[in-house]
From TrEMBL, chains A, B:
Lineage: Bacteria, Pseudomonadati, Pseudomonadota, Alphaproteobacteria, Hyphomicrobiales
Gene3D superfamilies per the UniProt record, alphabetical: 3.40.50.2300, lambda repressor-like DNA-binding domains
Record keyword Lipid metabolism present: no
Protein name: LacI family DNA-binding transcriptional regulator
Keyword Transcription: yes
Molecular function GO labels: DNA binding
InterPro entries in UniProt: HTH_LacI, LacI/GalR-like_sensor, Lambda_DNA-bd_dom_sf, Peripla_BP_I
Amino acid sequence: MVAARANVSRVAVSRAFNPHASLKPEKRELILRIAQELNYTPDRAARALVSGRSHLVGVIVPDVCSHWESQEIDALTTALQNQGFATLLFKTRTDYSMDEKLLSYMRGFNPDSVIAFVENVKPATLARFLDRAVPIYVNYPQTDEDAEPPGAPLYDRLNILQRDGIDQAVALLEGFGARRIAYVSGLERSRADGARERTLRRVMADRGLEPPAVVRGDFSYEAAYQATIDLFRVGKGADAVFAANDVGAFGVIDALRHELGLRVPEDVKVVGFDDIAQSHWKSYNLTTVKFDLDARVRALVRLILRRLEDPGAPRFEETLNTRLVVRGTVG
Amino acid sequence: MVAARANVSRVAVSRAFNPHASLKPEKRELILRIAQELNYTPDRAARALVSGRSHLVGVIVPDVCSHWESQEIDALTTALQNQGFATLLFKTRTDYSMDEKLLSYMRGFNPDSVIAFVENVKPATLARFLDRAVPIYVNYPQTDEDAEPPGAPLYDRLNILQRDGIDQAVALLEGFGARRIAYVSGLERSRADGARERTLRRVMADRGLEPPAVVRGDFSYEAAYQATIDLFRVGKGADAVFAANDVGAFGVIDALRHELGLRVPEDVKVVGFDDIAQSHWKSYNLTTVKFDLDARVRALVRLILRRLEDPGAPRFEETLNTRLVVRGTVG
């Protein structure tokens, strides 16, 4: 009916509803207007059976409400919508691992792509639960851990190079006189956190500094708050604290100021990691290593589209860098 | 194959994959274990065509990364997963309205339910884009605006009663000597904000207080920060500031302390609304009107399940109350 009324072919109608398909803008507009008048929408369940595409992208996250992840999901959902995909959220268990029942359930939706972290579900496990999607993993490459076991399942990669931003942060801390730098870690099993700590150690060693005192957090405000109190009351304190993420850095700052009576940055300097939107709030005004959200989302969308264009291709990779954003908690 | 190997009927296998269907726990476990060994998952696209259920719940939000919404999406996704549904996110335009192209696109996924706000998309508009789902609206009932136009489309309601919490907040402010209470509003078109401001006016009038000075924000930290500076530099200031949400209250506190050199709570008292997780952070330690997240998510899930049980029933409603959480920004 839509094709007849618009005086176009059925193929044109189908293309009009597919944001990837090329079609003259006037033609698409006409078809969509008539389709709307007729209250016509192609059923996606039916189309998925024919086209093999679900137009769903699964995102596996431990915490939607963590600041970093919520900002990423927000930007990613907008970008995916613009490309004709909807975001399907899957939450991991409280220990951050992925329930196999949930994976099997996710498979039923037959997503076109899945974005995941190694600490939540291993590529070999995930591959068993995907019929055709090639998952995308966020990776923190380190020269000594980049080897892949032979026969590993295919997955695409977004590589984050943490070295530059951390190097700039330590240089700034040193430039303002800090020598004893402590690290308030993230979650123990997180690869992002592991790579961050190892990079910090290497950067400090290269600069001839003593290795950092490490106190364990879990990326939360509360754990970083308690870890900071331990560091100064039980441990030997520090000139500067590097937190594994911004929210942790907020906990560090509040513990220093409100519990330990220390001034930031005069007595202790603080650096975070992420540059979430809250970092510029005046109570914190945090100096932090930025990992650009827009660039990350653009890279993820590119990986999805490249893979859909060419399902059989070998690994696709995108690589992003970090840099220091200087605000008020150092110097 | 699964049925044969488990020595059960095909119906039992189908029930095992449907979390709503009753089945002996041992039987379900056996079937799921065998299904996993055989790498079998029923395809949801195929099942949706047969059962008419997509197991998708659409959530229409303006900002995934607003603190309140991210915490709600997180809790809702967990609760829905436990009931066998996946969360499908749809973002509104930057003016918070819902794009009709996106609505038509959402319809294609044939969601079992959709959760929405009137300021993002009106029930009459949304109804045109849903084949069978009855949407759920979050509602802020006021005696004078509860009339429904005849022939309005069916939708279910989660009612939030704001009066109790706001009444408790104003009583506490008055008890600590505040008389001139200002309101830093949320987004102009938001019904939640409108109802909040009207309720505050009524509560203050009932207590014989002058009407609040109102400065316009938009639920963001930045707008509340600027509005507070205007209130004190251009306007006449206030003894206390009631912010439309917690993030706005953080902006109010930071503007008072870092821009205007005023102490909170000694010089100016501050109250927020929501009780998001950040409200207990030491830099803010905010006294706020709590609108219980867990209770809200449980009510939403109940509304979804009741409607799926009985698609033809008249309106379902759930009603929740608010209460004051006292921390450090008043008295």
